[in-house]
Amino acid sequence: MKPENILEIKNLKVKFPVTGGLFLRKVAEVKAVDGVDLEIVKGETLGLVGESGCGKSTVAKAIIKVLKFSSPNVEVTGEIWLRTPDGEIDILKLSAHDMRKYRGFVQIIFQDPYSSLNARLSVGQIIEEPLLYHTSMTKAERNDRVAWLLEKVGLQAEQSKRYPHEFSGGQRQRIGIARALATNPKIIIADEPVSALDVSIQAQVINLLQELQNEFDLSLLFVAHDLSVVEHISSRIAVMYLGSIVEVGNGKDVYHRPVHPYTKALLSAVPLPNLQSKNKKRIILKGDVPTPLRKPSGCGFRTRCPIAQPDCALEVPPLENKFGEHFAACPYVGPNAKVIHEKQAVEKDI
Questions:
Q1: CA–CA gap between residue 117 and residue 174 (Å, rounded)
Q2: Residue from 208, 213, 189 nearest 107 by CA
Q3: Is 60 exceeded by the pLDDT of residue 276?
Q4: How far is C-alpha 101 from the geometric centre of its chain's CA atoms?
Q5: Strand partners of residue 238
Q6: How far apart are CA 30 and CA 17, in angstroms?
Q7: Within 13 Å and on the Cβ side, how many CA atoms surround 53?
Q8: What distance separates the 2 farthest-apart alpha carbons in the chain?
Q9: What whole-number distance in Å separates Cα of residue 290 and Cα of residue 58?
Q10: Among 3, 123, 195, 321, which residue's beta carbon has the most beta carbons within 10 A?
Q11: How many C-beta atoms surround the C-beta of residue 239 within 10 A?
Q12: Which residues does 244 contact at the CB level (< 8 Å), separation at least 6?
């Protein structure tokens, strides 16, 4: 691992088997994640964006090693290195028993605040639960920690005896954040934490995450499909399409100077105030997103790409440095791009 990194993902692949027939034999496989490489620097926020179904949440769940619980036959390969007080640990090589020791270092905030909290437990019990398994605190110490965490996320200590159904969606997500902070983690994975909330509440949760990140020196992996939200909170942004990373770089650069054709199309669809969008051109992609069950050969985006060339079908393009620390997986973009023989871009004024 690089000295500045707290997490490194190398060639991560996640395949879900498709079974059929009388004996439910494996007849195919879904490549949900196909060779992902990512780095998270200590103290930064890495935004992971892409369309629904591109594999963002699967990457998040692979990092905390919970995919086996929902899909016992899932195949996960590659390396996920985590920097801990015990040294550098490859999470994928740990057994369930050994992984338990490190679960306190990496916590997750789930997308749906309505289903991610146990309705049978009080708020205090929900936040206290990680402390029972990952610390040696006494009951009094746990109670003090719960009260302190509730106040940190903008709730009152007295609310610890209430139940999830007594809270609004934004308040429930704050409870989820408090639970994630309970064990004093070094990395928090936020899996679309504001997508189920009203727009007015989204800003409050985002601002809360930023405040807590600065106070606790956290590293964040922020998974979302809303590029405007990701640009606001992220130090760097990685763009994902059909299980692969197609562009990664500084948050401002990716948002304002996109290189990959998919990122450009994604950003062209972001709504802007009328004065800003007057001369904006929208890139219209042809066709639908291919299924991961039958992913196109070579570049997965080539079937919809406006600048696709015949050799795009031959091999998967690697991430290449285009400028500064900005990388994109396309040989036909950037300063040293190959010559495009036939431009097929389809654009429409809006």
A1: 11
A2: 189
A3: no
A4: 23
A5: 48, 248
A6: 6
A7: 8
A8: 71
A9: 18
A10: 123
A11: 27
A12: 34, 35, 36, 300, 316, 329
Q: Tokens 């390396």 map to which residue? A: 79
pLDDT tens digits along 244-257? 999 999 999 999 99
- Positive or negative: CA dihedral 92, 114, 183, 221: positive
Please say whether the beta carbons of 221 and 209 come within 8 A: no
3-state SS of the chain is CCCCEEEEEEEEEEEEEEEECCCCEEEEEEEEEEEEEEEEECCCEEEEECCCCCCHHHHHHHHCCCHHHHCCCCEEEEEEEEEECCEEEEHHHCCHHHHHHHCCCEEEECCCCCCCCCCCCCHHHHHHHHHHHHCCCCHHHHHHHHHHHHHHCCCCHHHHHCCHHHCCHHHHHHHHHHHHHCCCCCEEEEECCCCCCCHHHHHHHHHHHHHHHHHHCCEEEEEECCHHHHHHHCCEEEEEECCEEEEEEEHHHHHHCCCCHHHHHHHHCCCCCHHHHCCCEEECCCCCCCCHHHCCCCCCCCCCCCCCCHHHHCCCCCCEEEECCEEECCCCCCCCCCCCCCCCCCEEEC
Tell me the pLDDT tens digit for each residue of 22-67: 778 888 899 999 999 999 999 999 999 998 889 999 999 999 999 9
What are 187's strand-pairing partners? 106, 219
How far does Cα 153 stand from its chain's mean position?
A: 22
The Cα 260–Cα 279 span in angstroms is: 21
CA distances from 225 to 50, 52, 195, 213, 228 (A): 5, 7, 8, 21, 9
Q: Determine how many CB atoms are found less than 10 A away from the CB of residue 17.
A: 15
Assigned token pair, 119:
């309705």
**Which amino acid type is present at position 20?**
G
**How confident is the prediction for the chain on average, in pLDDT?**
89
User: What CA–CA distance (Å, rounded) separates 124 from 163?
Assistant: 9
> Which tokens hold the place of 278?
């007057």
Q: For residue 50, what are its two tokens?
A: 């892409």
Beta bridge pairs of residue 256: none
**DSSP strand pairing (281-283 vs 244-250):** unpaired
